Amino acid sequence: MKKLLMVTILFVFLFGCAGIPVRPALQENISVPPGKIEGNQFSGIRYPFKVSVPPPWKLTTEFPGFLEELGYDKPFSTDKEQTEVYAYHPETKSNISFDFTPAGRYATFTQEKIERLTSMATESLKDELDKEHGKGVVKPDVHPTEPIALKGVQYAAKKYVTYTVEGVKREQGWIYGFTEPYQIFILYMVLEKEGANDRQDLKKILDSFEVMTKK
Fold it and tell me: Which one of 37, 43, 190, 198 is CB 3.0 to 4.6 Å from 171, fit for a cystine?
């Protein structure tokens, strides 16, 4: 799923509500570097999180060009929201990205709401597949929304679909989470290739992910 479309869908349900502010107004400062990469680990500077990858996966704070071929939008340097880090397998092109953004002043969160909003993003993905491949050409199998535990994250849910493009089976999924005061968007795609262990690698990556809380 293209990141910006997913974010737009979710923001529709989180903003525009009135009431008493539950947190100060925050804005992403893209002049602050996203973080530093040392070997196989990324440590956030813009946002307090870390994640590591197993070999031969690579980490980068720059948009990998091949993602456009897989249906992702290349961000502009002027975008107010920027993805913090990308990870990918150089041979299979399986990938995962981590994107933080401050929550709105009035937005409130529960696990139930997170799961509901995560499910709502499914229609956006179906629309995108129709636009890219022709209406009804790609028929995704939609899997149930599930809660997922991530270190340092208050609420999170995962959803994914599977489908085949040009003979290659894909698993495309998204995780939406919240931990005060941040919304977290994690997008991934596994492209099946004989002999690859990308699903197991993806689990290792998510197990390594941690939001660092201030002491």
Answer: 190
**Angle at 66 (CA atoms; ends 63, 71), nearest 5 degrees:** 90
Q: What is the C-alpha separation between 37 and 137, in angstroms, rounded?
A: 40
**Whole-number Cα distances in Å, 56 to 59, 66, 100:** 10, 17, 25
List the chain domain ranges.
3-211
Q: Which two tokens stand for residue 66?
A: 């091949």
Please tell me the pTM assigned to this model. Answer: 0.91
Nearest to 118 by CA among 79, 160, 84: 160
Under CATH, which number does the domain 3-211 receive?
3.40.1000.10
Per residue in 153-193, pLDDT (tens digit) is 999 999 999 999 999 999 999 999 999 999 999 999 999 99
